[in-house]
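stuck on whats below:

***
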Amino acid sequence: MVDPAKSVSPMKPLDPRLLRTASAVRTHLLVATACGAALTGLILLQAWLVSRVVARATGGAGLESTVGSASSASAELALVIAAVAAVALARAGLAYGAEAAALRSAASAKSQLRMRLVRHVTGGVPRDRDAGELVTLATRGLDALDDYFARYLPQLVLAVMVPVAVLVVIAGADWVSAVVVAVTVPLIPLFMALVGMHTQARTNRQWALLNRLGGHFLDVVEGLPTLALFRRAKAEAALVRKVTDQHREATMGTLKVAFLSAFVLEVLATLAVALVAVEVGFRLLYGRLDLETALLVLILAPEAYLPLREVGARFHASMEGIAAAQQVFTVLDDRAGIVPAGTGAAPTGDIRLHGVTVRYPGRDRDALHDLDLTLPAGRATLVTGPSGAGKSTLLGLLLRFVEPTSGRITVNADDLADADPDRWRRAVAWVPQDPHLFDDTLAGNIRLGEPDAPVAAVRRAATLAELDDVVAGLPAGFATRLGERGARLSAGQRQRVALARAFLRAERAETPPLVLLDEPTAHLDPDNAAAVRRAVGRLVEGRTAVIVTHDPAWADELPADAGLVRLEAPALVSGGRE
């Protein structure tokens, strides 16, 4: 199991992988930079206008001497005040527009990251990660990126642009104040870095506990019948409460550090501004500085520190999103078991495995070792063998969920690795041992792989899968919702729904389909098992098919030309039909 608290790299204010992975982030960064530049200009303009209007208004004769009359001075004063109000409104409008654009970009970026994560996982499920962890990561985890995109990243751009621009303007007006600002401003990011290093471990632990909570809760919900049977439900409820308390304590600890660090930054910025105010006040008192320049410096000095303080506050609010994004990149960087994306068409013909060996990461033995096997086109092959012989791995290879560690697979002499996995799977009819039915109608579940299939095709597939009696017993027939995981149906009925899916896929496939079945009669009563075997006999007739099973009764249901393969770990013994 991968520990999220240990698998992430140190946090960065802007991870370059975000720019490479989600194009919306690049667009958002450009928009944030443009808005930041405009806001910086408005801040400088507002400071200049305010200092000018206050200095001229308190100077008495200053305006009159400039324009020559009291009426003209009043008109200029009113014009400058109107300009200050207009700039203030423009700042507010620009800030609102920037946040709205940031929220839209955040939604797009989260969608792109989720799509990348789902495509990566479906390309080869990581065997060292819990389903609950991946679900938490793709939902609650990525949702935490809202604060990062909408508030932290725009503030980070301002923190880069505003202090530099303010320092340049102050240096042009009063170099002494500029030196004070230049010395004190770098102290804030220095303290932020120190606080960030201290809080990273806390944030990673908080995220690890959230993953643990999500994964454990999913396990508990799925295993409720077993827990109730063994009278462990109360003990598991206590364990969930314990994990929840641990997550709450970790969250409160992180918030405590956030509040303390924000207090430190506020104190530091306040002292720095006070230092500037003191030296400006004394020089103004002794006539070494004019009022307009002093006001400009005093108005701009807090603006130099404000973006940095805001970055510190926003950083803590966005750390969970940053940690989640880094965890997504950890999953995306894990290439173990991920199928390379070919671009060729799905080949057809005899399927041959040439010296195929598969060893899963972290295992000390091969799941399959040096396997040579031919699956003739248009014929069924029955695969048997003890548990651990590699039967499920063989199906994973044919589904392209698993790639050979060594050796290769060819289809009519074409390397299967060169084919596009999605196009290959569209020609595969797959019936797993425990089919997953969704909380949808019966027709919707049968149409899972063929959403555009007409009603007549769905009805024919159901008839071929011997589902007519099931349809007749449902309140609304094909329009009946089956409930979560097909709760309305028995195990045998769920298996026949999966067979109906396979019939629908096989009959609508553009190329001759490959039919794969994994223990289709496991755990079924004799009547349901017989019905499934009859349906499978119709499904595999004239098609390339692989049936993995321990049930010897299959030999009587398959066509006469069906082959038999027995896998033994690590050797293979194969022969003709017995």
Remarks:
- The longest strand covers residues 351-358.
- The CA atoms of residues 3 and 208 lie 7 Å apart.
- The chain has two domains: 4-333, 351-575.
- The radius of gyration is 34 Å.
